């Protein structure tokens, strides 16, 4: 390299090094992404089952229909007993019968409670009613956009009741319930006096949403889903510090669009059904927890979509989000107009 100034030699060497690091980093994350989504575990959620004659229980909120029911269905197929929590007694009874038909030997309990209006005293009484059960998993799934119709509206048209309803259902209820459930999830049988990593583990799953990035016409919904994500990540780190709770894993789930009872308008044909989404969730939790991940996008294409969105310039990102949400707004509000 005679005749090339030393400065240029150093610059070229630095750029070559950065290029190599970029290639290695890209290869590393690509391999991790593909192995997460393509390798199927032989015994999903085995770490959260309990020793003894009675299988462990999973408490799933908002589980009478939609994604919550699909998660309950996926868990019961893995050998867990189920506690269904929702606010419609008839819908819960129907969900219970469907699950019982699927796995007749499973124990299925019901808790009737409205996440928007439940008082701390009512919640504590409900938690005490299941305290004798071997609960090892809590799934904070309940959520939605419980506002006065039409569902997609500008924030300036929200009443104080609309604002409070979204916060109560999506954020306040899950935070209170999780705090009340941690003492139950902390219980475990130590094996020969070994540490938590050798004993029985527990799991908290918190349903956030890709909408946590901030959505027009769903401002309160997106904001509460951002809360769910931050709550879950912070709690995961906090639980890992205390010897009494470090056996409790905590993971935020970030769904994109999923076809379900509550999300049936303006959904792409390529988006998963709730049962498909739940199946992928069950398959991938163990890998995500084992890697120390704080968040998981169970559906592979949701991960790709989220990555693309993250690298877009803000102007392009906002334009695309407004375009996408505009189509959903027209679909949802149009369906509401026709039903009036």
Give a short summary of the structure:
With 340 residues, this protein is α/β, with parallel strands linked by helices. The protein has 9 helices and 7 strands. Strands 3-2-1-4-5-6-7 form a 7-stranded parallel sheet, with helices on both faces.
Describe it.
This protein is of the alpha/beta class. About 50% of the residues lie in helices and about 10% in strands. The protein contains nine helices and seven strands. A seven-stranded parallel β-sheet has the order 3-2-1-4-5-6-7, with helices on both faces. Helix 7 links the parallel strand 6 and strand 7 (about 295). Helix 2 packs across helix 7 (about 275-290), helix 4 (about 120-130) packs parallel to helix 5 (about 160-185) and helix 5 (about 160-185) packs parallel to helix 6. The protein is globular and about 80 Å long. It starts with 5 loop residues before the first helix and ends with a helix. The model is unreliable at about 190-200 (pLDDT under 50).
């Amino acid at each position: 390299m005679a005749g090339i100034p030393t400065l240029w030699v150093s610059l070229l060497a630095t750029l070559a090094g950065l290029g190599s690091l970029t290639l290695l980093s890209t290869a590393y994350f690509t391999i991790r992404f593909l192995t997460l989504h393509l390798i199927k575990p032989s015994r999903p959620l085995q770490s959260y089952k309990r020793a003894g004659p009675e299988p462990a229980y999973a408490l799933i909120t908002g589980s009478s229909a939609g994604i919550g029911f699909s998660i309950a269905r996926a868990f019961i197929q893995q050998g867990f007993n189920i506690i269904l929590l929702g606010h419609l007694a008839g819908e819960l009874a129907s969900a219970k019968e469907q699950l019982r038909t699927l796995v007749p030997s499973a124990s299925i309990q019901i808790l009737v409670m409205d996440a928007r209006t439940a008082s701390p005293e009512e919640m504590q009484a409900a938690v005490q009613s299941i305290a004798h059960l071997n609960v090892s998993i809590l799934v904070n799934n309940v959520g939605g956009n419980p506002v006065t119709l039409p569902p997609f509206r500008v924030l300036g048209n929200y009443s104080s009741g609309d604002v409070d309803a979204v916060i109560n259902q999506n954020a306040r209820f899950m935070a209170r319930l999780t705090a009340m459930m941690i003492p139950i999830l902390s219980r475990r049988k130590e094996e020969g006096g070994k540490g938590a990593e050798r004993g029985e583990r527990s799991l908290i799953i918190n349903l956030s949403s890709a909408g946590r990035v901030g959505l027009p016409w769903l401002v309160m919904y997106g904001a509460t889903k951002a809360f769910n994500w931050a709550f879950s990540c912070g709690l995961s780190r906090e639980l890992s510090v205390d010897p009494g709770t470090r056996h409790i894993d905590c993971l935020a789930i970030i769904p994109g669009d999923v076809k379900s009872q509550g999300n049936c308008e303006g959904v792409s044909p390529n988006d998963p059904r709730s049962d498909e989404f739940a199946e992928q969730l069950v398959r991938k939790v163990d890998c995500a927890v084992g890697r120390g991940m704080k968040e998981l996008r169970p559906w592979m294409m949701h991960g790709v979509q989220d990555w693309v969105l993250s690298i877009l310039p803000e102007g392009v990102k906002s334009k695309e989000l407004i375009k996408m949400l505009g189509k959903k707004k027209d679909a949802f509000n149009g369906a509401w107009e026709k039903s009036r």
